[in-house]
Amino acid sequence: MADAPIADYLFQRGALRGTQLTLLESRLLHLGTDCTESIALDAIASARIAFERDARRIGWGVAFGVFALIVFALAGPLGAAVGRALAEVSAQIARDASQASAVAQFLESALGALKFAVGLMPVAGLLLALWGAALGARGWIGHTSLTLVLASAEREFRTPGREPLLEDFAENLAQCVAARMRR
Asked: Least C-beta-crowded within 10 Å: which of 74, 85, 89, 116?
């Protein structure tokens, strides 16, 4: 006769989306689309549930935001300086068109390319700001993880964001593990 389910939790987001944890009287089942994992409750030494924000991603998001501000701040002055230099070189080449050297023409071409690149700096700054915002948001959303400590390993089940239903499932699991240890 099969154990009666005590609690279950369906992962709706993240890498485990579509899989389910089912707590039975003597074991924990992780039912996936391709496989099933069974963990005896007697083998679980402890269970830990935690919601954690990803400080590393938040830090990288802030760093990209600061870098985007620097790129925005430098775009205007660099564009003006390159524009003035290009105008001077172009004016000199126009004055001495017959004696324009290859170096001056190369310098004009190089300054034109640099002006184009500096013109792209606001777009690069916007992309950096968006990337930083996405990283920061992803880090702030965090994840809820259920970690089982077994005799020779740890098994972690993780879902994005704060997940109270997984916390409730973990509470039921902890009660069942504690009850089995008292026997």
From this structure: 116
